[in-house]
UniProtKB/TrEMBL annotation:
PROSITE patterns, per database record: PROTEIN_KINASE_ATP (PS00107), PROTEIN_KINASE_DOM (PS50011)
Low complexity bias locations: 416-425
Compositionally biased region (Pro residues): 400-411, 426-464
One Pfam family from the record: Pkinase
Organism: Pseudorhodoferax soli
InterPro entries recorded: Kinase-like_dom_sf (IPR011009), Prot_kinase_dom (IPR000719), Protein_kinase_ATP_BS (IPR017441)
Region ranges (Disordered): 400-467
Protein name according to UniProt: Non-specific serine/threonine protein kinase
Length: 516
């Protein structure tokens, strides 16, 4: 076995057979798994297959997944069980806005789930490519779909806790789909004796940082994340993390943002939307809509018929300018190279488990932001969390800088959102009451005519030039840099740089993975 085959950044090669499926290419990779395009030889259809592969814990030797160190065995197993349980839970639902799981099984010392292969892009990709903010009717269609999917989960007593723009998939035609529940991600954070959960900090409400009496997680936590997703797309930058807002709330109020979008783009957003976003983004869980029904009522959300024909690009109108190549086209082409695509960065901070650890989800009983510069990334997040919960810092993947970006986009390019690993207890879901959406009046807003603008920025390959560890991980610190560098060096654009070659050499010398 050659050394390079040990690294999980390598997807399984095309042609690999997994049960009745044959892998055709890599669609995406997160910190916890890889997603492949595959052909189902039994039912003669194309599918997507997600592989459980937590990058921090496991390597690949041949096709099999192996732990880097035996000490992680329990953590890996917990994540695996959660991955399987999430698949089984999702398989019970049949809703067009919730990812459908076709099959789940164990193989190669890990687990796989097969899903329909959706054609489209994530909301994160779509928002980054928009020429103008999405008009309100468009947002309402998005919200309607996601609320429907979330409501199903809430009715089953499951709070999602991981809603973010990269978990919402915009099909070329059809309703937006909620992709996953991030169960493995959350289970991996429940290691004893320190309970950690890996958060996407820009979208996670404050109660997800550390569950405490009076600040429990519940449907209101998903309301925060959903409001943050909409706010982030309008703002073209993710909202300030709740952990930072607690100390100094620099989140620009949605009303101000709406005003600016009106004057800049001529777009009108109704008071109902603005008020719902304001309430949904309240730091204090008590001041947020307590469930989706309350959020829907504030929004004055009305059922949207015909979502099966929703063409999100067409409905953006002049706000969308088709890039040369859509992700779905990319999905359809079998890749010739098997490298891990760009990962969303993560920052790991372990916080001691709080004294109070609720066993179940309970029943419900600003100033102007400095746009583009407020993102505190690892350092500030670590500081804030340290103040909040007397943290202990562990290995922390940081936030490598984005690839070179093509000439100035018509809108400010989206900031990369970041995940942070923080303490959180392991809340067990409790039954939630059904929350029917009240039939309210949808306030129509005419999509304005957009002035001609140049096509949106497209990520271009970074020219190969030698960067230092500090340049690759500018926002990392002494503690977080090693993991940041490790992650960055798994990306094709950095792999050949001297600092990565040296880093990889040292890692191989110092760290031989378990070949169990
Ligand atoms: N069923 C699908 N059809 C098409 N593409 C998909 C499908 N599932 C996932 N993808 C693609 O793969 C990418 C990674 O998927 P997903 O977010 O589920 O992975 P993950 O490892 O769970 O990531 P996360 O870090 O969010 O937990 C998605 O962003 C999407 O582009």
């Amino acid at each position: 076995m050659n050394a390079t085959a040990r690294y999980p950044s390598q997807g399984l090669p095309p042609g690999t057979r997994l049960a009745e499926f044959e892998l055709h290419g890599l669609l995406g990779a997160g910190g916890f798994g890889m997603v492949y395009r595959a052909y189902d030889h039994s039912l003669h259809r194309t599918v997507a297959i997600k592989e459980y592969l937590p990058g921090g814990l496991a390597d690949r030797i041949g096709h099999a997944v192996t732990l880097r160190t035996g000490a992680d065995a329990r953590r890996f197993e917990e994540g695996l069980r959660s991955f399987m349980n999430e698949a089984r839970l999702l398989a019970q639902f049949d809703h067009p806005a919730l990812v459908k799981v076709l099959r789940v099984w164990e193989q190669n010392r890990t687990a796989y789930m097969a899903m329909p292969l959706y054609q489209g892009v994530t909301l994160k990709e779509a928002c980054a490519q928009m020429r103008a903010p999405p008009p309100e009717p468009w947002l309402r269609k998005l919200l309607w779909s996601v609320l429907q999917a979330l409501e199903l989960l809430h009715r089953r007593g499951t709070v999602h806790r991981d809603i973010s723009p990269d978990n919402i998939f915009l099909q070329d035609i059809g309703p937006p789909v909620l992709l996953d529940l991030g169960a493995a991600r959350q289970a991996l954070g429940q290691d004893e004796p320190q309970h950690t959960a890996i958060l996407k900090v820009n979208y996670a409400p404050i109660e997800q940082y550390a569950d405490a009496e009076g600040m429990r997680q519940g449907p209101w936590s998903d309301v925060y994340a959903l409001a943050a997703v909409v706010y982030g797309c309008l703002n073209q930058a993710p909202p300030v993390p709740a952990s930072v807002r607690v100390l100094r709330d620099s989140l620009r109020p949605p009303a101000e943002l709406a005003q600016e979008l009106h004057s800049l783009h001529g777009l009108a957003y109704t008071p109902a939307l603005v008020e719902a976003l304001t309430a949904g983004l309240a730091l204090d869980p008590e001041r947020r809509p307590r469930d989706l029904a309350a959020f829907g009522a504030l929004l004055q959300l009305q059922p949207v018929p015909g979502m099966e024909r929703f063409d999100w690009r067409a409905e953006l109108g002049p706000g969308w300018s088709a890039p040369r190549r859509t992700t779905s086209q990319a999905h359809q082409d079998a890749p010739t190279q098997w490298q891990a695509p760009l990962e969303s960065s993560t920052v790991g901070i372990t916080v001691p488990a709080p004294a109070v650890r609720p066993a179940a989800v309970p029943q419900p009983t600003a100033t102007r932001a400095t746009r583009g510069t407020w993102w505190p990334k690892a350092g500030v997040a670590a500081l804030v969390l340290g103040l909040l919960a007397a943290v202990g810092i562990v290995a922390s993947p940081g936030d490598p800088p984005p690839a070179a970006v093509a000439p100035a986009p018509p809108r400010k390019p989206a900031k990369a959102d970041t995940a942070v690993e923080v303490a959180a207890p392991a809340p067990a879901p409790a039954p939630l009451p059904p929350a029917p959406m009240p039939p309210e009046v949808l306030t129509p807003v005419e999509p304005p005519v957009q002035p001609d603008a140049p096509p949106p920025a497209r990520r271009a390959p970074t020219p190969p030039r030698a960067l230092s560890a500090e340049q690759i991980c500018p926002d990392s610190n002494f503690f977080t840099r090693p993991m940041c560098l490790f992650r960055a060096c798994q990306q094709a654009r950095y792999a050949a740089m001297p600092v990565c070659v040296e880093n990889t050499r040292r890692l191989r010398e110092n760290h031989r993975p378990d070949a169990s």
